[in-house]
Structures are given as C-alpha cells and as structure tokens.
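On clarity, I found the account of how folds are encoded harder to follow than it need be. What matters is that the chain and its backbone geometry are given together, residue for residue. For the editor and my fellow referees, an illustration may be useful. For illustration, here is how one protein appears when written out as sequence plus structure tokens:

___
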Amino acid sequence: MSDTALLVMDVQHGIMNRVTDPDYAARAARAVATARDAGVPVLHVVIGFRPGSPKANERNKSFGALPPDVFTDDDPGSAIHEAVAPRPDEPVITKKRVSAFAGSDLELVLRTHGIEHLVLTGVATSGVVLSTLRQAADLDYRLTVLTDACHDPDPEVHRVLTEKVFPRQADVITIEEWAKTLA
C-alpha cells in the first residue's frame, strides 16, 4: 500500500465554471490517471453544506454571503467535474471551509490508510491548495504540489505561490515530473 495520496480539491462544477484555463480539466484528469496507474490512492475533496442552514457568519468574506442552497446535495454545482469523477472505491471528503481539513474527516481517513505524503491539486491555488498545504505542513505531512494541476484565477498569484511560497514546505513539480518519480 502506498503512503502517498493524491488530493483532488474543489474540482466541482460550481467552482470550475469560473476557471478560465480551457486546458485545466484535462491536466487535472491527467494527474488523476497518473495516480491511478501508479496505484496511488485518489481522494476527492469537496466543499459541501447542509441545506437551509447558515454557511458562516456574515463576517466571513468567503462564505458569509453565499446563497442558502449553494454547494448542498441538491445543487448541481456541488458535483465533481466529470474529468476527475471519483471511482466507487475513491473517498469523497466533504469540507466546510477553505482547507481540506476544516470540518472534514480527512485527517482520520489519511491516518486510517497510513498516508504520510500528500500530493496536492485543485482550484484555487490561493484558496484550498494554500490553506491545505499550510495545515498539512503543521501536521507533519510530506507534501508535493503539482503546479500544472492547480489553478488560480490570478496567474501572478499562482506563480508567486508555486515559485516562492510553496517550496518552503513542499516539493513543487509538474505532473510529468511526478509521473517520472512513480515509474
């Protein structure tokens, strides 16, 4: 069993409809295929809320102003994008805030499966990827970020994070470079 897992984070229709890079979904799918071919577990992380309940206090700029039905089970935008659709044996982790760990059972799932190395992908680089990387580093996980399997609406923010910030706590490589390490 691999001690590594690929986290595919926030690749949901309601988020992907704001991705401006037309090739992003195909690259994310290539990262998933690379993991599956190498026997690396794939974990899908999604944002999800209960219907009709407040998502957050109005002071929360990210979640406080969301409509009441967004990212609930009935919201089509909450569905994982078909390019990276989970297989029946792949866990789907539901989080309540930006970090994949916030309000989820991710840490329990990782410990249960002996996962010590996280390979991070997702939308947005400045959101879920940054928040998850920081928390995972504090929890002593070994980290890799796949630069071309992450997307941010601001290309300069993506560049600064992947070239200057993330390397302090993670290996930052491309999908192709990661595939070579798995061969």
Q: What stands out?
A: The two ends are 16 Å apart (CA to CA). Residues 24-38 form the longest helix (15 residues). The beta strands are 4-9, 42-47, 92-95, 117-123, 142-151, 171-173.
